[in-house]
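re: the backbone from monday

yeah here it is again, tokenized this time
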């Protein structure tokens, strides 16, 4: 797909949408509303999302049959084995105002949403899934979501929406995120500082002993979960904190302080550590 021109990718997107529209009576909205605003990455993500929701398109022959049914836009296929009879189908690609994303379902717009919003929705759908299925599990998406790509987070949401059809719209996602008090603070994984962190404001962290760093790391995690109403999640930093280097602990604490500036002082951290009764295992 990366070798295809933007014109070809947009044409493929329109043809796949026509295929889904034919399969789904009453299908509203769709990428044709804003195809001219989509770049190559957005087109490829849309194409992959359609394939995921329509497994028959994973078959190469079926896929080419669908994307080659329209002769109104020139398409070049490098595979000489592909033989087809083009069937003219009108394609409208005139630029229109931004669509109302709820109409055609999440797949119409989700790959264009900012990362913070995607993660908020993913965490909300996880909590919704657990409530509907009456599940109580150790750990969860919050423990590794920062390591997922935007596309992987979007796919997680689509998977949940496919299982719980009522989640397949923007309003429902926003409602459950509010219901579960989901608030996401970008937190880089331990091991590297966020470029925007002004390290000078947190110099006091670098001079602490390992025991203090562990105490503050566990304290900031507890405070973060409390602030985001995630106290009910089991498992977390305590399971592997002893395996982190001092540098990783410093990075973790600083990134948490960046998200929660109200606790960015030794006095406040120590006060919270006492409140949460956090004591390193070595003591």
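seq for it, each position gets an aa:
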């Amino acid at each position: 797909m990366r070798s295809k021109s933007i014109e070809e990718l947009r044409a493929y997107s329109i043809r796949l949408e026509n295929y889904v529209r034919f399969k789904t009576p009453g299908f509203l909205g769709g990428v044709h509303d804003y195809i001219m605003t989509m770049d190559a990455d957005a087109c490829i993500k849309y194409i992959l999302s359609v394939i995921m929701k329509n497994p028959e398109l994973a078959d190469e022959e079926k896929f080419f049959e669908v994307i080659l049914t329209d002769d109104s836009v020139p398409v070049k296929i490098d595979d000489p084995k592909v033989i087809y009879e083009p069937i003219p189908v009108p394609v409208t690609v005139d630029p229109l105002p931004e669509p109302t994303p709820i109409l055609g379902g999440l797949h119409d717009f989700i790959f264009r949403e900012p990362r913070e919003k995607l993660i908020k929705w993913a965490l909300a759908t996880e909590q919704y899934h657990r409530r509907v299925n009456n599940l109580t599990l150790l750990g969860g998406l919050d423990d590794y979501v920062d390591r997922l790509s935007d596309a992987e987070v979007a796919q997680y949401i689509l998977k949940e929406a496919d299982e719980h059809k009522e989640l397949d719209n923007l309003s429902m996602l926003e409602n459950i995120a509010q219901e579960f008090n989901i608030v996401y603070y970008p937190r880089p994984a331990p091991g590297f500082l966020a470029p925007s962190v002004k390290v000078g404001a947190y110099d006091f962290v670098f001079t602490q002993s390992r025991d203090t760093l562990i105490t503050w790391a566990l304290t900031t995690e507890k405070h973060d979960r409390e602030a985001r109403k995630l106290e009910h999640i089991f498992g977390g930093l305590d399971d592997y904190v002893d395996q982190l280097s001092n540098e990783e602990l410093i990075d973790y604490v600083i990134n948490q302080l960046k998200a929660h500036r109200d606790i960015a002082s030794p006095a406040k951290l120590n006060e919270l550590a006492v409140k949460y009764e956090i004591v390193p295992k070595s003591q």
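The radius of gyration is 24 Å. The chain has three domains: 6-99, 113-179, 199-276.
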